[in-house]
Amino acid sequence: MENENRKSALILDSALPVFARYGFQKTTMADIARATGISRASLYLAFNSKEELFRAGSARAHERTMSEVEAALGRTGNVVDRIAAAISAFQEGLIAPFSKSDNAKELFDTNLKLAKDITIAARSKLLDLLANVLAAAQAQGEIDLKALEVSPADLAALIAAAMDGIKHSFSADGRSDDALRLLMRVLSVALKPEEKNADGTTG
């Protein structure tokens, strides 16, 4: 079983740059077998089809990425910095591998077609994780959501929507990191609690 898992991991790792180079439609199982250094027969013993292989790759990428996101949010330190690290992990694991490919749109569309349930589950988990860490920071007085009149869940959804915008608007020209840093600066300012004077008033 361990050897089979290693073989599957090798195939999926080898398939990723092939899909990025040729796109899903033009990639063949022979291309993937060649990139992996195995025969087509051996490849078909591991995966019955290109579709099954792509879905397995998506599942693996989402599982690994969400573990990294959860770890980033679970660290100690400033909540906005932890959210930034989590978003970076999400983008690096699920967006970056295809974002600079000429076939990016086709590959993202293929993922939604073949692994929509996996993608939706990961996004739902991301929203829950963000909402939980924001709620905890609010309870500890690190941030002030009341001033914005927003719930942790709604702010988490807004952050995720901003991530989508960054993916579509900035990834192609390499400015996604700059856009992410700007988003985090905006959050830092918007969520900063008002300082209280000695008499308990704010200002």
Walk me through the structure:
InterPro entries: DNA-bd_HTH_TetR-type_CS (IPR023772), Homeodomain-like_sf (IPR009057), HTH_TetR (IPR001647). Keywords: DNA-binding, Transcription, Transcription regulation. This is TetR family transcriptional regulator. GO terms for molecular function: DNA binding. Residues 5-65 form the HTH tetR-type domain. The structure is a single chain. This protein has 203 residues and is mostly helical. The chain has one domain: Tetracycline Repressor, domain 2 (Orthogonal Bundle). 76% of the residues lie in helices and 0% in strands. The chain contains nine helices and no strands. It has helices spanning 2-26, 29-36, 40-46, 50-73, 79-99, 104-114, 116-139, 152-170, 176-191. Helix 1 (2-26) packs across helix 4 (50-73), helix 2 (29-36) crosses helix 3 and helix 4 (50-73) packs antiparallel against helix 5. It is elongated and about 65 Å long. The relative contact order is 0.10.
Topology, element by element:
Layout: H1 2-26, H2 29-36, H3 40-46, H4 50-73, H5 79-99, H6 104-114, H7 116-139, H8 152-170, H9 176-191
Helix pairs in contact: 1-2, 1-4, 1-6, 2-3, 4-5, 4-7, 5-9, 7-8, 8-9
Domain HTH tetR-type: 5-65
Organism: Ensifer canadensis
InterPro entries: DNA-bd_HTH_TetR-type_CS (IPR023772), Homeodomain-like_sf (IPR009057), HTH_TetR (IPR001647)
